[in-house]
Amino acid sequence: MEKLDSTPWPDDSTAVPLEAKAGTLVCFHGLLPHYSAPNRSPVSRHAFTLHATNAGSRYSPRNWIQRDASLPVRGFD
């Protein structure tokens, strides 16, 4: 992980967990620090993640989401 800011992450004494009921849509900026603790429940946790950029964004080759030439990255104007 590359640290981009010196602001410390909250620890368990200051972090505030937010529970989201099944079917809840949670939206936030991709640069917002966020964390999901391990699922210790016997029930699987399902999630759908959508990553969106605008057409002027430079898509980093280091990004973990990569697509080949048959399905190029598209942006929004």
UniProtKB/TrEMBL annotation:
Gene3D superfamilies: q2cbj1_9rhob like domain (2.60.120.620). Pfam families: PhyH. Keywords: Dioxygenase, Iron, Metal-binding, Oxidoreductase. One of its GO terms (molecular function) is dioxygenase activity. It comes from the Bacteria. This is Phytanoyl-CoA dioxygenase family protein. The lineage of its organism: Bacteria, Pseudomonadati, Pseudomonadota, Betaproteobacteria, Burkholderiales.
